[in-house]
Amino acid sequence: MLGIPTVVDRIAQCVVKIVLESILEPVFHEDSYGYRPGRSAHDAIAVVRKRNWEYDWVVEFDIKGLFDNIDHELLLRALRKHCQTPWVLLYVERWLKAPMETSEGEMIERTKGTPHGGVVSPLLANLFLHYAFDRWVSENLPGVPFCRYSDDGVLHCKSKAQAEMVIQKLGNRFRECRLELHPEKMQIVYFRDNNRKGNYPVQRFTFLGFTFCPRQAVGKNGVWFTNFLPEVSRDALRHMRQTIRRWKLQFKNSLELADLSVQFNPILRGW
User: Fold this and answer.
1) pLDDT of residue 140
2) For residues 43 and 212, what is the distance between their CA atoms, to the nearest angstrom?
3) Which of 93, 96, 100, 107 counts the highest number of beta carbons within 10 A?
4) Cβ 122 vs Cβ 34: under 8 Å
5) Max CA-CA distance within the chain?
6) Which among 196, 184, 198 has a CA at the least distance from the CA of 227?
7) From the centroid of its chain, how far is CA 217?
8) What are the pLDDT digits (tens) for 118-142?
9) What residues contact residue 96 under an 8 Å CB cut-off, 6+ apart?
10) Residue 265 and residue 44: Cα distance in Å, rounded?
11) Three-state secondary structure call for residue 105
12) What CA–CA distance (Å, rounded) separates 154 from 141?
């Protein structure tokens, strides 16, 4: 559920975001990509693609209801560690604990979480996960590189045994931080290709709209081979097809090609 701030709060949250971003950006981990200036989902995909060639296994995970379940006490403790500006701390705590008003006018108290839809919420979520996950992995799982985009991420492993150990430790860590991993979206994946011929039932995973799986590729000498590469996911393709159908292009024959390009090219470039 989206929590939409009032216009005044939206402006104020933008001010706080500008103040906190300058403080927290130098602190955040280089392998955190979600909702950060100068970083995109495509940067995360490129990093994962490269590491797939260096490691044989990956643990894919997703945090269940991140924005709804962030612990206020732990989040404010992390915020006070980096920011001592009284008015910033005051307003962030107010926004976290402000009740939500339903369409019927009922006020619902909030004891955890940060509104999914608030301007400052993604930054606060990144701060929480910096300590709950990013820094913890760096200190407790040496040799296991990760890539995280908000509440979605992957960890690369050298062996199946290491991947199983990572899953166990990761589950314990998130329980300590009062979060829960999504059981249906957590799995171990093996990278099968021409050079890695092991047998494991799961050989594909989807990350940020791309499905990584064994695919045919052409080498420099023109020889075809199987590599582990990303392709657009089935869900993303279905969304694209449905969007194009809604355009009803067959009924737009009164428009010039230039008019159509102005209307649709920004969407096509994004895809």
Assistant:
1) 96
2) 15
3) 96
4) yes
5) 68
6) 196
7) 28
8) 899 999 999 999 999 999 999 999 9
9) 72, 75, 76, 110, 113, 114, 124
10) 24
11) coil
12) 13
How far is the C-alpha of 64 from the C-alpha of 152, rounded, in Å? 10
Q: Six-digit token pair at 235? A: 């869900």
Task: Encode 220-244: b = buried (16+ Cβ within 10 Å), e = exposed.
Answer: eeeeeeebbbbeebeebeeeeeeee
CA angle centred on 230, ends 227 and 232, rounded to 5°: 140
Distances (CA, A) of 140 to 37, 74, 169, 192: 28, 20, 9, 28
pLDDT in tens, 187-210: 999 998 888 888 899 999 999 999
pLDDT of residue 244: 95
**Judging by beta carbons within 10 Å of its beta carbon (0-12, 13-18, 19+), is residue 1 exposed, middle or buried?**
exposed
Residue 102 in tokens: 């339903």
In the prediction, which pLDDT does 73 show? 95
* Alpha-carbon separation of residue 28 from 176, 202, 260 (angstroms): 21, 32, 42
- With H, G, I as helix, E, B as strand and everything else as coil, classify residue 32: strand
- What are the E-state strand segments in the chain? 57-64, 100-101, 107-108, 146-149, 152-157, 180-181, 187-190, 205-207, 210-218, 224-232
pLDDT band at 2 (very low <50, low <70, confident <90, very high): confident
Mean pLDDT to the nearest integer, 13-28: 96
